[in-house]
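Weekly sync notes, structure subgroup
Attendees: PM, AL, DS (notes)

Item 1: joint prediction request from the bench team. They want all two components modeled as one assembly rather than separately. Inputs as received:
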Amino acid sequence: DTAVSQTPKYLVTQMGNDKSIKCEQNLGHDTMYWYKQDSKKFLKIMFSYNNKELIINETVPNRFSPKSPDKAHLNLHINSLELGDSAVYFCASSQDYTRAWHFGPGTRLTVL
Amino acid sequence: KQEVTQIPAALSVPEGENLVLNCSFTDSAIYNLQWFRQDPGKGLTSLLLIQSSQREQTSGRLNASLDKSSGRSTLYIAASQPGDSATYLCAVRPQGSGNTGKLIFGQGTTLQVKP
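Output from the run, pasted for the record:
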């Protein structure tokens, strides 16, 4: 009964490839997010989805595209991977801005 | 521009000590502030959420305070245990962010509690 799950946990790939990370939440939350944690451990928001609508896109390259087939899922597609994309990507969800957040376990992406 | 700073960056204490982690933010216009715990290689777990109208929240051995006007929050851990070893992150939700996910995170304090 995991609240927010992500797959895969680890992803190692070559530069230039296209990859996807999947995220699912079983909490019935309305909003889902993708965050990136860099090597210095800073967490920065990438995308926010509310009821399948993109709310914000914080200066993220258009090689990154979130896709939400339904309210419980928010997948992250990355095209033409670059070395600088190596990081840990976290999916999260919340019911609304007054409630606590729930984070997934993270996906460690390594681009060679 | 909202910035969140956590001091110290790392902390090592013997088991049983009471300790305080600090978080400061530059803009007092926030909806709320959350403290998270991150274990190595794991996701974040929300520990305490303080709304802007609140002064503190408690959960077990944890107590978080919020002084919005001065832009400060503290996380107090009583009777620390080795299992408390982790990185502790604070994050604020700026006003004007609506129902977006714009949490602004600090860099975290990595805590080690030695047996």
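Discussion: The mean pLDDT of chain A is 90.
Action: AL to compare against the crosslinking data before next sync.
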